[in-house]
Amino acid sequence: MRPVTERRGYHQFCGVSRALDIVGERWTLLLVRDLLLGGRRFSDLLAALPGLTPNLLSRRLKEMQAHGLVAQRRLPPPHAATLYELTPLGRELEPVVFALGRFGARWLGAPTADDRTDPRWAMVSLKRRYVGSDRPRCAELRVDGLSFTVRTGGPAAELVDGAPTAAELVLAGPLRSFAAWIVQGASARALVSEGALVREGPAQALTDLARAFGLRP
Questions:
Q1: With 70 as the cut, is the pLDDT of residue 7 above it?
Q2: Which of 43, 90, 100, 210 is 20 to 30 A removed from 128 (C-alpha atoms)?
Q3: Does the keyword Transcription apply (predicted)?
């Protein structure tokens, strides 16, 4: 890990202030959030964060690489794309992002017409709610056409971009229906009964999944 090369921050001998020197710049923690579910291309990150210019995104990613938080990975042909991924050090910020999400949720309210929404942000919100489970489950969540893999069982959950090769449960629907379940406390079974969500797989698998995240089955 490289040392901080530019000390324009708080100049305090304190771990909190030093951390803010590294991740306290605008957009940095949002980039961490957007990389929690897997690697993203430069264009993907830019499209997900309106208001972030290409030059500023490039600068932030270079700073994060210099601090050992992010690394580049080149995909082989025919994809021929470069992904930005969190390093193990960068992944140590996951509980920080989760804690900020819990703290900020009390002022969140309902989205306004100016608020951007994103299925990946909902999945990050879901992952931070994991309370543990002794029943291993593998599910695919399809949100507005995007697929995510969820694996539960044990003290930690896996939630990443992309569909699993095999899932015992598939839950599909628009983001607003997943938000009603994850954020607003609606019952998953009720949403399925109303047609707001579509379930493929046993009802018990949905119950186990909901309980693993402290949500209403």
A1: no
A2: 43
A3: yes
